[in-house]
Amino acid sequence: MHSFIRMVKSGFSSFIRNGWLSVASITVMVLTLLTLSIFFILNIVLNTGIKTIQDKIDISAYLNDGIKQSVVIDLQNDLAGMSEIKSIKYISKDDALAAFKLQNKDNQKLLDSLNGIDNSLPASLEIKVYDPNKLDQITTTLESNKYKASVMKISYKENKEIIDKLFRATNLTKQIGIIITAAFTLVSLIIIFNTVRIAIFSRMEEIEIMKLVGATPGFIKGPFIIEGTLYGIIATVISMLVLSSVLYFVTPAIASYIGGVGDNISNFLRDNIVQVLLIQLGVGITIGVFSSWLAIRKHLKFG
Amino acid sequence: MIYFEKVSKIYKQAEGGTSEALKNITLHIKPGEFVIVVGHSGAGKSTLIKLINREIRPDKGKIFVGGLDYSELKKRDIPYLRRKIGVVFQDYKLLPKKTVFENVGYALEVAGIRPKEIKERVPRILDLVGLGAKTNCFPRELSGGERQRVAIARAIVHQPRILIADEPTGNLDPKTSWEIVEILQKINQLGTTIIMTTHNSHIVNKLKKRVIKLADGKIVTDEAMGRYEN
User: Fold this and answer.
1) pLDDT digits 0-9 by tens, B84-141
2) In what order do the strands lie in the sheet with B18-29?
3) What's the whole-model pTM score?
4) Structural domain that includes position A187
5) What is the ipTM of this complex?
6) Residues of chain B contacting residue A219, judged by C-beta atoms under 8 Å apart
7) B50: closest chain A residue by CA
8) Which of A2, A217, A302 sits opposite B115 (nearest CB)?
């Protein structure tokens, strides 16, 4: 036990006495953590944006006038049985008219012209799905022989080309986001590893002396690992402070451009502050310890 | 205590050739002896020291130290071997970021000695080498002679039976050199076997101890109460 306390003490004191080396390593680590955090947040923004767009994609199946209520119920039941579907809403002819009137409430002339005319708006089913990529399956059902006569028009069909383009774009954006984040993670790891390696390399003579006076590899390694842990902890604290203050000032600006997204980031951070902190801490300490361990390993061979 | 049996050490050179630093050396050092190894640069003195401390391995022959056969020593046992041998280097090899106390204490820490005992033993040793007042200084704040005293204190604090000193006075002025040698003599009188390399003839001739002279990797003379002229 006292040898563990000794290791911790020795790690702390060499952390302080190697002032500028510690500062350099921590700086690089802070930048690493910040870069990663920013990319993850950008990913969240992107995904929220994509989700918002995808939520707006739904199918309206316009029904022919005069079809039997039982057919509508059949259709609704059939669709409800499909696992891809989030919700189905039946909009009657009257509902459609009311919605139309609400939409055009500022256009008095148009509203006046409706008076006395038969409601020519069709009833419709508004279908929302979990995964917009599955829309095709739903149209297949709607176009089946059973319902062909009842369904007048499917809105999705009309917009299919635009929606498909949008999908391709959002999927591509997501993939690029993942690739860039992964690349940045890798580059950051390489940079931080090299910084720690240089820090340890500059202390090779020290390690050599420790070996000469009979220190075991474990005894030499211990304080260096503790130092690595300290790098991780301090870098995390700094990066969290920077991150939260930047977000505090920046989110309102983002929110004014993309409504909802800005709220999403600050809500996300507020709701997940503990997780974000723990993840950063975990990443920071892991990188610190792992790079120290990896860098020191080869200096510890006894010839 | 120390026994070399037909030991040779060959170094590979950058150009692809080889140089034989030690050639078929056979040597016996008894417990409690004070042995001085002399010779010009490149004669093989440092190689001899490094072989005893197991920093390098011989290419031929066998080495026994304190009854231990080095050819059977495993790499992971090297740290434990080094705790039984004290070493003093020409360039002191102190840990720059540790104080005098911590440098000396480190040799005890590595052996797992309790902090309480370290606090008792280190000041005693520092008094022995005359550095009681410099306990909390860092190496950069000390003179060469003081640094070498710290190194000696570190080398003997764990009470090794063998102390090897590789050119301990190499960087010091004559007066300080003699002070260091006097400390080594004192340690020898307490029962520690000492092997010291030097090319300072003044010290050798004043000490009147066993002198082994190396030249070109071979022992040329080995005399009790030997003398040495540069």
Assistant:
1) 899 998 899 999 889 999 999 999 988 888 999 999 999 999 998 889 899 999 999 9
2) B18-29, B2-12, B60-65, B68-69
3) 0.69
4) 2-53+167-300
5) 0.83
6) 79, 109-110
7) A212
8) A2
